[in-house]
Amino acid sequence: PDEITVGELAARMKMTAANIIKKLMGLGVMASISDTIDYDTAFLVASELGCAPEKEVVVTIEERLFEEEEDKNEDLVTRSPIVVVMGHVDHGKTSLLDAIRHASVTSTEAGGITQHIGAYKVKVGDGEITFLDTPGHEAFTAMRARGALMTDIAILVVAADDGIMPQTVEAINHAKAAGVSIIVAINKMDKPEANPDRVMQELTEYELVPEEWGGDVICVPVSAATKQGIDTLLEMVQLTADVKELKANPNRMAKGAVIEAKLDKGRGPVATVLVQNGTLHRGDVVIAGTAVGRVRAMTDENGRRLEEAGPATPVEITGLAEVPAAGDDFNAVENEKLARELVEKRRYQQKQEQFNSYQKVTLENLFSQI
Ligand code: GDP
Ligand code: MG
């Protein structure tokens, strides 16, 4: 059950119903002894009354909605690495992502129309690599703090003719803070002024010591323009991923994050989600931030329709009732009604947060006027 009557709650808490009704009124909830209240409200009342509530009362919507058991070892399989490209503006992030993407398009796929969905998979040998293709620096910065969390490896692009710049340092700090492995792509090697030694020298100042100098940081000289070194770079990513032994459980409900989302005139809310664990199926009920809905259609970066998407797979989905925000978590769930309740709860929390930040701002404004 998702609800409990005031009377039953009182009995479980060994308290009079009047006590509870009074507390509820304090919270702005008008209820009589036979009315039902949701579990979160019940939990709030119980804790406010300093009562050790019985176990069933304490269970939150999230706990009832999400499958949170640990994956068993025998369910885990190797998954592809999730890679993000970081670096200073104009050092060649977009060019490199394009070069990688084109290097991977096989002749059998040549007919496919590639779409921008914010992420794509690349075949390397018998394996695959998932790239987050966050466009533009702004979106990247906004998502980086959370984006780094969904990634395993960061390719740090440094232009060989420019060296380490402020956003390079920012990227290094973000990657380090998130515990993401860093591979350095020394780009623009085709330029006559390219000076890879200088780049490596500068890297050591940020405790990134290249392998060739006795450290553990892989540096690959590349050119997004001539495609020189791209294959080696991809091999190094694969190698790093192998060492990390990345695993996931395809036999559970999907969970992951929203990479980007928009409102499409014809299709309604469209979101690219990255499945991090589990498998997403067409028809699944998903909740992403305050958006909920049933996956109506699912397509990959080549516009191909998919029935399901396993771990480390980015897919574009339609069917959500509203547009989620980039960086929102998403979960496939069994109970649609509960998912809608959680959306209500999240909306309420968002409003509270907005209200709190509004209050803070006005206070600050007040002081600044004195
Ligand atoms: P981003 O801001 O990091 O995404 O950088 P872009 O990919 O937009 O590249 C910035 C500029 O550098 C563009 O004019 C690219 O054509 C150029 N560029 C990128 N990679 C290379 C390269 O390997 N060699 C040369 N010569 N130019 C490059
Ligand atoms: Mg760019």
UniProtKB/TrEMBL annotation:
GTP binds at residues 87-94, 133-137, 187-190. It comes from the Bacteria. Residues 81-229 are annotated as: G-domain. Its main location: cytoplasm. Residues 78-247 form the Tr-type G domain. Keywords: Cytoplasm, GTP-binding, Initiation factor, Nucleotide-binding, Protein biosynthesis. GO terms for molecular function: GTP binding; GTPase activity; translation initiation factor activity. It is found in: Cytoplasm. One of its GO terms (cellular component) is cytosol. The keyword Cytoplasm applies. Belongs to the TRAFAC class translation factor GTPase superfamily. Classic translation factor GTPase family. IF-2 subfamily. One of the essential components for the initiation of protein synthesis. Protects formylmethionyl-tRNA from spontaneous hydrolysis and promotes its binding to the 30S ribosomal subunits. Also involved in the hydrolysis of GTP during the formation of the 70S ribosomal complex. This is Translation initiation factor IF-2. It comes from Bittarella massiliensis (ex Durand et al. 2017). The chain holds residues 196 to 565 of 772 of the full protein.
